[in-house]
Amino acid sequence: MSRFLAFLRKEFYHIFRDPRTLIILFGIPIAQLMLFGYVMTNEVRNVKVAIVDHSKDDLSKRLSQQLLSSGFFQLAAIPSSENDYESLFRSGTVKEIIVFEPEFAIHLMKEGKANIQVIADASEPNAAQLTVNYTTAIVNNFVKNELMKNQPLPGINIKVRMLFNENMRDAYNFIPGLIAVILMLISAMMTAITIAREKEMGTMEILLASPLKPIQIILGKVVPYMILSIISALAVLGLGMLVFEVPVIGSFALLLAEILLYIFLALTLGILISTFVDSQLTAMAISGFVLMLPSILLSGFIFPIKNMPIPLQILANLMPPRWFIEINRTVMLKGGGLNEIWPNTLVLMGMSALFIFISIRKFKIRLQ
Amino acid sequence: MRTLYYILQKEFTQIFRNKSMLPVIFVMPLVQMLILVFAATNELRQVDLAIVDFDNSASSRKLTTEITGNPFFIVRQNLSSTKDAEDLLMRNKIDLALVIPRNFDKDLTLSKRADVQILVDAINGMAAQLSLGYLSNVIGNYSQKILVKTGKLEPGLMKSIEIKPTYWFNPQLNFKYYMAPGILVVLITVIGVLLGGMNLVREKELGTIEQINVTPIKKWQFIAGKLLPFLAIGLFDLAFGLLVARLAFNIPIRGSMPLLFGMGSIYLVLVLSLGLFISTISDTVQQATFVTFFMLIVFILMSGLFTPVESMPDWAQKLDYANPLYYFVKIMRSIILKGSNFTDIFNEFAALSVFAISMFGLAIFRYRKTS
Question: Which residues of chain B does A91 touch, with a Cβ-Cβ cutoff of 8 Å?
Answer without folding.
Answer: 340, 343-345
